[in-house]
Amino acid sequence: MEPANKHGSECGAVVITGGGSGIGRTIVERFAQAGEAVLIFDHNEAAAEQVTADLKAAGHRAVAFVGSVSNEDDVSAAFDLAEAYFDGVKTLINNAGISGNCPTIELSLGEWQRNIDVNLTGVFLCSREAGRRLIKSGKPGGIINMASMYGVVAAPNRISYCSTKSGVVMMTKTLALEWASVGIRVNGIAPGYVHTDLTHELIKTGRLDAEALNRRTPLGRFGTPEEVADLAWFLASDQSRYITGQVVGVDGGWSANGYL
């Protein structure tokens, strides 16, 4: 199919994985409203298509790709689509991820592997593909990896999540060193507890104690998706042109707080 909305695309697109909902959707909207072309890479077809339709209706440049970040062929095809519509990629935001909350002795090998596949292998595959294409194009670019405060500080019953997110932290630093000389900056974001539809549901069903979490957080509240998106925008912008290899916490002071 001919890419009908290929226009003004010479600068490339911002590719956002997991961009169909939650924090990812807010990041997509932040970049689109600032005039960037966006590619929403999500496994949920309905969510990806809905956000894309909403953005196009508002006059923004957007395209959806439905697939898995842990599938090498899907990743390659997503970046092919970015080239077909928007002349390539300028920024990759590795936002796709899954949670893991289970006592270690009850954690199945399948769930352990699923966390690795999505949270770690997905970041690797998408980063490698973005790196290959940016290096080939000779253009500078950026990669922003969504880690977590639980990739920086430990928590019980979260061995799969903490392990994979700490791997994202080290991947961020390694790629920043490896690709600095070719003009690719790589940084990370480590959110704490953020108000999303998922956290609202967990609070509503009693699986998350919001009051206890707020007491533990120095700033006394959950974060917002907009606060995470604003940081992503800053790290992708020329305002952060001398920043690479950093993982910035957006956790209200949680990871700095050594007191319970």
From TrEMBL:
One of its GO terms (molecular function) is oxidoreductase activity, acting on the CH-OH group of donors, NAD or NADP as acceptor. InterPro entries: NAD(P)-bd_dom_sf (IPR036291), Sc_DH/Rdtase_CS (IPR020904), SDR_fam (IPR002347). It holds the Pfam family adh_short_C2. Transmembrane segments: none annotated. Signal peptide: none annotated. PANTHER family: SHORT-CHAIN DEHYDROGENASES/REDUCTASES FAMILY MEMBER. NCBIfam families: PRK07231.1 (NF005559), PRK12826.1-2 (NF009466). Belongs to the short-chain dehydrogenases/reductases (SDR) family. This is Short-chain dehydrogenase. It comes from Vreelandella sulfidaeris.
